Every structure is written in structure tokens, then in C-alpha cells.
Amino acid sequence: MRKLITGLLCMSMILVSTGCAVRSSSENENDPGIRIISTSAALCVILEKLDLDLVGVPETAFQLPERYKDVTKVGLPMTPDLEIVKALNPTDVLTPNSLQYDLKPQYESIGVPSTFVNLMSLEGMFKSIEGLGKKYNRVPQAAALIEEYNRFMEDYHKKIEGKEKPRVLILMGLPGTYMVATEKSYVGSLVRLAGGVNVFDSEEALLSVNTEALLQKDPDIILRTAHAMPEIVMESFEKEFKENDIWKHFRAVQEGKVYNLSHEMFGMSANLNYTEGLNYLQEILYEQE
């Protein structure tokens, strides 16, 4: 009888232990009850580095971390499916603050809490990472990312110190058109950190400017990137620069100082690919040296 009771107790302990070890992919191990949705691929990468699970991720052409491969898709970043979002019963929906004006009223209409994360610049992104670390008890993970950034920038500034700063025109392409990206955009903030001087100064991230006004700025270098549909946008840029006669009058065009940037590194939202982006800009901006 004692052997039987002992055996049953052991089996019970094994079952309890096994049950405790099982958790759904939507639960945060150290934060039961927290259900986070991310509507941005860049945010998903950050949240994975902060060791946070998600219950919802965006439909995106960007590759998401393996950790989130089976997580429910909530629609496109700019137009998330509100029915799916609400059905997931999130405790927080994380979205880039560039979409706050459009999406905040929609989240409020379905009664879900939301946080709009500053991804407009590297400085803003790391400030947001610090805040998310505190909010979700991930301070060490956030501190590690921030320390890595500070070390990189310290070394990077030494590399470009004393170099002549080129004047740069940044064109952000959209299907059917393009706009000028200022320092207030993410790509503009990278160019500034790389030592480039933006030929347009504005409080707006993107400006609509005619080509005559662009020509008057006489940039040393022209950078072109895409907000969406990069293949179509880059083809449009090639056609525009070939068929619009005014571009041949730009000194940067005459000297072959026109460069296409990857939308994955130089898109609208700050991301953890900044090291690759800044190293690439260093090669472009100081190629003559």
C-alpha cells in the first residue's frame, strides 16, 4: 500500500510539473495576463530582443522573428483588421507613432488600449525601447540594446570626425510620386548622424517640392529610397531621372552622385538595422575620401 501511495504521489507531481511547463505561444512567461499586439515589423524585432511574446503581428513583406512565426496576423500595418484585433483581447496594441492620427480613433472605437511608439529617429526609437523596458519589466534587455547603440555611435563618430559634410537631397518614393525627406524622417535622421547636411530644413518629415526648387538647392549627393512597393518605386525613379530633362542639370547627377537606398534599412520607421544603414551611408557620403 505504501508503495502504491508513493507511486501515485510521484505521478501527480510529474503531471503537475508537466502542466506548469506548458504555456501558449501568446502568453508572456514572466507576465501572465499580458497580451501584446504589434502592428509593425520593426517593432516585432525590438520586442523579440526584449524577450516579449505577442498575440498578434502584422501582415508584412519583411521577415519577422522566428519566435512569432505562428502568431495570428492582424492585417497590414497601416490598416489593421479591427475585428481580429478586438477578438485577440489585447492588453496593449503597439504601433509606430507616425500612424497615431489615423489609428488611435480606430483603436478607441473598439475599446482596446494602445501605445504609439516613436520610430521617427534612432534617438526616438531608443527612448521608446527604454520606456518599453520599464513598462514590461525588461530593463536589462533594454539597457543592453541602448548600450550597444551608444558604443557603436561612439566609434562611428570617431570614423567621420573632421570629414567635410556633404549636402544631401533625400527623395522618398511612393507609388506614382515622390517627396523630399527631411531630418525629421528616419532616413533623414540617419543621414544627419552620418554627418550629411540635409538641403531642406523643416519640422515636417516629408515635403512636396517641385523640381525647380530642388535644383536651386544644388545638393552634392542625391539619395533615393522607397516608402512602399520598392521595385515599382525604383523603376519610377529611373524613368523620372531619364525622361525629365531637368535632372540632367543637377550637379549630383552629372557627377554620378545618385544612390538608391534599400527600403529595409532606410524606410519610414527606425529599426535595429541602423548599423548596416550608417555604415553604408559612410561609404556613400565620404566615397571621395
From TrEMBL:
One of its GO terms (molecular function) is heme binding. The keyword ATP-binding does not apply. Belongs to the bacterial solute-binding protein 8 family. InterPro entries: ABC_Transporter_SBP, ABC_transptr_haem-bd_IsdE, ABC_transptr_periplasmic_BD. Residues 35-289 form the Fe/B12 periplasmic-binding domain. It comes from Geosporobacter ferrireducens. This is High-affinity heme uptake system protein IsdE. GO terms for cellular component: membrane. The keyword Transport applies. NCBIfam families: IsdE. Keywords: Cell membrane, Heme, Iron, Lipoprotein, Membrane, Metal-binding, Palmitate, Signal, Transport. Gene3D superfamilies: Nitrogenase molybdenum iron protein domain (3.40.50.1980). Residues 1-21 form the signal peptide. One of its GO terms (biological process) is heme transport. Coiled coil: none annotated. Its cofactor is heme b.
